[in-house]
Request: fold
Amino acid sequence: MAGTKFPSLVSLMLHRDDSRDDQTYLKLLGLDLVTVPSNNHASPTGALPFIIPALSGTDSTILDIVRPVPSHKIQEWATKNRITSRTEPDSMRFEAYLSLLDHRIRSAWLHTLYLSGPNFDAVARPLYVTPTTSSPPARLALAHNLKSAALEELTKGSTSSVIDLNALYRESDNAFAALSELLGDDAWFFGEAEPGLFDAGVFAYTHLLCDKDMGWKEDEERLGRGLREGKYKNLVEHEKRIFEKCYQ
Reply:
């Protein structure tokens, strides 16, 4: 829109400190980011996160200023407004690698965070339960809902509520192996000159899994073992590059 400026400020509406991939991607774009605790009722799609860009300029209207952008539209918004010219590859190959994040790694993440008792008490409870309410019955109900939602997601389409943990973590490790092979000796995925949305998506998992301050219980944390034991050194180095670029 002529005369409208897009300054480097957006508000990311999210639940607690979720959405590390969206936070990282916005930082990779060079945008100043303000995170704001929100809820699903405030979202235009009924889901978190979403962003509210801060616009300025003589031609901008109130609707332009407050129009929210849902998470799955952030890259489209950034490209449309010439914040970035990069888009992720539009190919079956890219979709195949994206599915490793969205399915194999995410499934193991759900089990690690919510269904491993020691990890739930050490990581999920302090993040998502304790800060929410001081009421013991409410905390008990919230913990139950989080675990139930994770179990429902992992057993969707199955006739059994039993999860094959060996298969779950074997597939997640195979996914990390495939990502490590894809990255190779490059700095960023798909040989790009600068990191993009896919890099942010990988970082969202590798950073939290490598972060000792998260409090993971070693015996229970099988998902990040290959990263911590040096099996996928290039993914760990990739995590460090993103962290230095965005958070230092």
